[in-house]
Amino acid sequence: MNKIRQWILGEGIPLLYICLLLYTAISKLMQYDLTREQMAVMPVISPFSGIVTWLLPVSEIIIALVVFVPRTRRIGLYLSTGLMIGFTMYVAYMMKFFSHLPCTCGGFLQNLTWPQHLLFNLFFVLIGVIAILASRFPIKEINQGRLKYSR
Questions:
Q1: CB-CB contact of 84 with 124 (8 Å)
Q2: Which pTM does this prediction carry?
Q3: CA-CA distances (angstroms) from residue 26 to 101, 137, 142?
Q4: Are 76 and 14 spatial neighbours (Cβ–Cβ below 8 Å)?
Q5: Residue 1 near residue 47 (C-beta atoms within 8 A)
Q6: CB 141 within 8 A of CB 7
Q7: pLDDT surpassing 60 at residue 55
Q8: β-bridge mates for residue 143, sequence order
Q9: What is the distance between the alpha carbons of residues 126 and 96, in angstroms, rounded to a whole number?
Q10: CA distance 72 to 12
Q11: By CB atoms within 10 Å of each CB, which of 51, 77, 123, 147 scores lowest?
Q12: Distance of alpha carbon 129 from alpha carbon 69, whole angstroms
């Protein structure tokens, strides 16, 4: 059971983040014109929509690469979870004041309602925090009668 839990925390959650980040980045870049138009009407973002349209997917790709590399994975988990916290706060803001505006996430995520989007983001924030905590406090396992700390 420890091996499965160890894989989920050390590899599974980071893999989910990598897939999510790359999927949304590629979707935004493939639909660049639509993303730019949507960003231009978004509250708070609209004055910076030109730069955000490029900066956001490029940042997502860079963070996915940081999560991918085992040596930098913890930093990547902090960055990706922080990004998801920011997105979650923005979704909550949108739900409160502008629920009729489109989502700029790309792909299937655009079809989510704002409440569904909030739950989706909260799920990723939760698993990100769990993975960060697991990386800070390694799981003990018994290996040939001796306790071993795994990283």
A1: yes
A2: 0.84
A3: 22, 34, 42
A4: yes
A5: no
A6: no
A7: yes
A8: 146
A9: 22
A10: 16
A11: 147
A12: 18
